[in-house]
Design brief:
The chain is mainly alpha-helical. It has 18 helices and 6 strands.
C-alpha cells in the first residue's frame, strides 16, 4: 500500500501543478458531462492561466522578498526562531509520515462529505493538501502517534471544506468567480478575525466612515488611484525604505525604481491572468451546475475548490498586503515576548489577507487593520509552536538553516487552525480529537441550518438568493 501511495505522490511531484491541474480539470469536466473538445480547451486554458499566475506571483515573490529582507536587515534585530517560508513548510508536511497518506485521505473525506450533502466543494487543489499534512505532522510531533496525526489531517481537510463553503458566495460575488470556493488553510482562517474586526470598526465613530476601497481611492486620486500606479507608488515607498543604504546613488535609484515597476507589473498582470483563468473555468462551472440539476435536484450547487492565488491580484488585496509588509516587520521588533524574525515568508501576506476583502467590502484600511491583528496574534502562535514545527522538520529530514535554533513560517505557522488542533490533541489525547470533531460538526450544523446569515457575515451580498440545499 505504501508503495502505491509513494508512486502516486511521486507522479504528482514530477508532473507538477501546472500539468496535473489541467488533467484533473479535464477528467472532472468529462465526468460532469462536458463535451470532450470543450473540456479539453477549458482544461488547457486553465493550465495556461495558472502558468501565467505563477509567473507573476514569482515576480512578486522574488522582488517583495528582496525588499522585505533588506528592511529586516536594516532593523538589525535578531531572533532565535527563523521564518523559513511556506515552501519549506510544504516540504516538511509532504515529507512527514502523514504526507504519504494525505492525498487519498483528503479525497475520501471530500467525497464522503459531498455524498452526505455536508459540502458543496470538490477540492481539486491537490498541492495545497499539504496544509492538512502539516497539521497532522505537528500532531504526530506532539503525541508520537501516527493515527492521531492522520485523524487530525482528515479533520483539517473537513475544516477547509467548511471554510470554503462558508466563504464561497462572498468570494464569488466580490472577486467575480462564479462556481468557485477557496478551501485554503492559509487564506480562509482570517475570515472569523475579519468579521470580529469589522464588527468593532462599525462601532467606532470616524473610523467606520473611512471609505478606502479602491474605487473611492481611484476617484479621489485620479490617475494615482489606478491599480498600476498604486502598485508603482507602494513599490517605490517600500524600495526606498529597503534600499536607501544599498550603495551609491545610482545603485539605490535602480533598486527603488525596480521595486516600483515590478510591483506595478504585478498589480496590472495578475488580474489579467485571472481573467484568462475564468475563460477556462466558466464552461466547467456551467457543466457542474447542469450535472447537479440533473442528478441532485435543481436547488443544489457545486463548487470547484481552488488555490487562493486567484484572489491576490485584486487591487484591494494586493495593496493591503504590500502595506502590511513593513507593519509585519515593525511588529516583529516591538511585540514583547516575540521570538520570531521574519525572513522568507513575507511575500505570503497577500494570501493571508485576501479573503478579508469581501468581508470589508474592499476597504483597504479595514483589511490592513484585520491583517495587523492577525499577524500580531500570529507572532505569539508561531513562538509557541516553534518547538513542534522544528521537531516535525527534523523528523521529515528537513535541514535547519545555519544559525537557526528553531523555525516557523507565516503560512500555517502563524495561523490558528494548527494551534487549535495541536494544543487540543496534545492536552487531551484521543479526547481532543473527539472535541475537534464535535466542534466541526457543530459548525457544519449551524451553517447548514442558517446558511444565508453565515454567508452574509462572510461578505456575501444580503440580497443574493440563499444557497441552501
Amino acid at each position: 500500500m505504501e508503495a502505491v501511495l509513494s508512486a502516486i505522490k511521486t507522479l504528482f511531484d514530477t508532473l507538477g501543478a501546472t500539468v496535473m491541474l489541467p488533467i484533473i480539470i479535464f477528467l472532472l469536466a468529462l465526468i460532469l458531462g462536458a463535451k470532450p473538445g470543450r473540456a479539453f480547451r477549458a482544461a488547457v486554458t486553465i493550465g495556461v492561466a495558472f502558468v501565467g499566475i505563477n509567473l507573476v506571483i514569482g515576480l512578486m515573490w522574488s522582488n517583495l522578498t528582496e525588499v522585505a529582507q533588506a528592511i529586516v536587515k536594516n532593523t538589525g534585530v535578531t531572533r532565535d526562531v527563523v521564518d523559513v517560508g511556506w515552501p519549506s513548510a510544504a516540504a516538511i508536511a509532504f515529507g512527514s509520515s502523514v504526507g504519504l497518506w494525505v492525498i487519498p485521505l483528503t479525497i475520501v473525506v471530500n467525497l464522503v462529505l459531498l455524498a452526505l450533502r455536508l459540502t458543496r466543494t470538490l477540492d481539486v487543489d491537490v498541492w495545497n493538501y499539504w496544509h492538512f499534512a502539516f497539521i497532522g505532522s505537528l500532531v504526530v510531533a506532539a503525541t508520537n502517534n501516527l493515527l492521531y496525526g492522520l485523524i487530525a489531517a482528515a479533520l483539517a481537510a473537513a475544516l477547509a471544506l467548511f471554510l470554503g463553503d462558508w466563504t464561497a458566495k462572498a468570494v464569488q460575488k466580490f472577486y467575480g468567480l462564479p462556481g468557485i470556493s477557496i478551501p485554503h488553510l492559509t487564506s480562509a482562517p482570517i475570515v472569523p478575525i475579519a468579521i470580529a474586526t469589522n464588527w468593532v470598526i462599525e462601532r467606532i465613530p470616524g473610523l467606520r466612515d473611512a471609505e478606502w476601497d479602491t474605487e473611492t481611492i481611484r476617484k479621489r486620486l485620479g490617475v494615482f488611484g489606478e491599480p498600476v500606479i498604486l502598485g508603482l507608488v507602494i513599490g517605490l515607498v517600500l524600495g526606498a525604505i529597503a534600499f536607501y543604504n544599498a550603495g551609491d546613488f545610482v545603485t539605490v535609484l535602480a533598486k527603488v525604481l525596480g521595486a516600483g515597476i515590478n510591483l506595478a507589473a504585478v498589480m496590472l498582470l495578475l488580474p489579467r491572468m485571472v481573467s484568462i483563468l475564468m475563460e477556462g473555468l466558466i464552461p466547467i462551472s456551467e457543466s457542474a451546475r447542469e450535472f447537479m440539476q440533473k442528478r441532485a435536484g435543481g436547488d443544489r450547487e457545486f463548487y470547484i475548490g481552488l488555490d487562493s492565488a486567484i484572489l491576490i491580484g485584486h487591487p484591494a488585496a494586493i495593496a493591503s498586503a504590500l502595506v502590511l509588509v513593513p507593519i509585519a516587520i515593525l511588529l516583529s521588533v516591538i511585540l514583547p515576548g516575540n521570538r520570531v524574525i521574519l525572513f522568507a515568508d513575507l511575500a505570503v501576506i497577500p494570501f493571508v489577507v485576501a479573503m478579508t476583502a469581501p468581508v470589508m467590502r474592499g476597504n483597504v484600511l479595514r483589511i490592513v487593520i484585520a491583517g495587523t491583528i492577525t499577524l500580531a496574534i500570529g507572532f505569539y502562535i508561531a513562538t509557541s509552536m516553534a518547538p513542534l514545527f522544528t521537531s516535525a522538520a527534523v523528523a521529515s529530514g528537513f535541514s535547519l538553516p545555519e544559525g537557526a535554533v528553531q523555525i516557523t513560517s507565516i503560512a500555517d505557522g502563524f495561523l490558528w487552525p494548527p494551534f487549535l488542533f495541536v494544543r487540543t490533541v496534545q492536552g487531551l489525547g484521543a479526547l481532543g480529537l473527539v472535541v475537534l470533531l464535535v466542534l466541526l460538526a457543530a459548525a457544519f450544523f449551524f451553517f447548514l441550518r442558517n446558511t444565508k446569515a453565515w454567508e452574509v457575515a462572510a461578505g456575501a451580498p444580503a440580497e443574493a438568493p440563499a444557497a441552501g440545499d
